[in-house]
Amino acid sequence: MGPIWSSYYGNCRSLLFVMDASDPTQLSASCVQLLGLLSAEQLAEASVLILFNKIDLPCYMSTEEMKSLIRLPDIIACAKQNITTAEISAREGTGLAGVLAWLQATHRAND
Q1: Where does GTP bind (predicted)?
Q2: For the domain that residue 86 is a member of, what is the CATH number?
Q3: Is 55 annotated as a binding residue?
Q4: Is 54 assigned to a binding site?
Q5: The model scores a pTM over 0.85
């Protein structure tokens, strides 16, 4: 679906980007997609929440491991957007209340 994402960028104030914390083989591909989104001019002012999903699985990578592997501090230093991260388990609902709170706070700040 990545190739058609740009048709949805208009009026985007918040971006949720989900990364699979249980699959290190997809991490580099996810990082490339994230960098593509962050470089899109239409998303320059969007707030970004990177969600590390599947923390309920026994083989998941910690947030610190993932941040290190994708060099997140370097990405944040170069990005125009405000970037936040969170760990979630969509299956169990862990962390989803925090995602909703982030969305509400982000939209209140942008109004």
Answers
A1: 53-56
A2: 3.40.50.300
A3: yes
A4: yes
A5: yes
